[in-house]
Specification:
single chain, oxidoreductase, NADP-dependent 3-hydroxy acid dehydrogenase YdfG, SDR_fam, NAD(P)-bd_dom_sf
């Protein structure tokens, strides 16, 4: 396991599912972890699990759309745990299913705002301090629709594609100062989000492919993304900063191929080479 001794991590959406596993892996590797989510009970449960495993965690309830509240909780992390070395934006919302004319506009926009604006809020607070210290890593989770069309999940897909581009922009802005940003796709993981897709009438009507994938045995353990992100935090995949890494990746193979991927400009949100030359 990667060593994160004497570091501080912040994980959003840390109350359950993928976020809980990310936080536990960060703590198991030696990091002190700030746990952010809207539901206090859930992040308190995550903190208790980490404490029982010998780690240190600070649960901080927050609505990531509230800029002032985000500034406040991240200031508390810095005071109570120390300067932040790793930021993982794992939070996500996906509640608007179907063609855009059938989606409730407020629900559709809420998905975009939570996913994208929440990520912006945390990064804009954490990145400047990382730059002052000349080091830091930021991991933003993406997902379905990042690099392909997702017609009946357009709000979620639009936000995740935007987060991918935002991650590239952020990395290009900060990498010369020693701060690297990464995008991670955890794969199809059975979480409360996918349970809503599977069990709600709207999800069953418009996203039947999700059930089909689970029926075919595609169910990525959340530990895959958590272990990958621990390695990212420890610097193992620094040559892939600004690019997409996946929970389904074989990490040893990815490490062997990462310099070639970077040289080929792979794992990035790009037009094809021919189209790029026409612009």
């Amino acid at each position: 396991m990667a060593s994160l001794e004497s570091t501080v991590a912040v994980v959003t959406g840390a109350g359950r599912g993928i976020g809980r596993e990310i936080a536990r892996h960060q703590a198991a590797a030696g990091a002190k972890v700030g746990l952010l989510a809207r539901t206090a009970r859930e992040i308190e449960e995550t903190a208790a699990l980490i404490a029982a495993e010998g780690g240190t965690a600070l649960p901080l309830p927050v609505d990531l759309v509230d800029r002032v509240a985000v500034e406040g909780v991240l200031a508390r992390v810095a005071v109570e745990l120390g300067p932040i070395d790793t930021l993982v934006n794992n939070h996500g919302s996906f509640r608007a299913f179907g063609p855009i004319w059938d989606c409730d506009p407020e629900t559709w926009w809420s998905d975009v705002e939570i996913n994208l604006r929440g990520t912006f809020h945390t990064c804009r607070v954490v990145a400047p301090d990382m730059l002052k210290r000349g080091r830091g890593r930021i991991v933003n989770l993406v997902g379905g629709g990042t690099g392909n069309s997702f017609p009946h999940g357009s709000g979620y897909a639009s936000s995740k594609a935007a987060i991918m581009r935002f991650t590239e922009c952020l990395n290009d802005t900060t990498i010369d100062g020693g701060v690297r940003a990464f995008a991670v796709d955890p794969g199809l993981v059975r979480t409360s989000m996918t349970e809503l897709q599977l069990n709600s009438p709207e999800g069953q009507a418009w996203l039947p492919g999700i059930q089909q994938l689970f029926d075919e045995g595609i169910n990525v353990p959340p530990t895959r993304a958590a272990a990958l992100i621990a390695d990212i935090a420890a610097g193992r995949f620094d040559p892939l900063a600004g690019r997409l890494l996946r929970g389904v990746d074989d990490r040893d193979q990815l490490e062997a191929e990462m310099h070639a991927l970077a040289a080929e400009d792979g794992r990035a949100l790009r037009f094809t080479g021919v189209e790029q030359r026409k612009l």
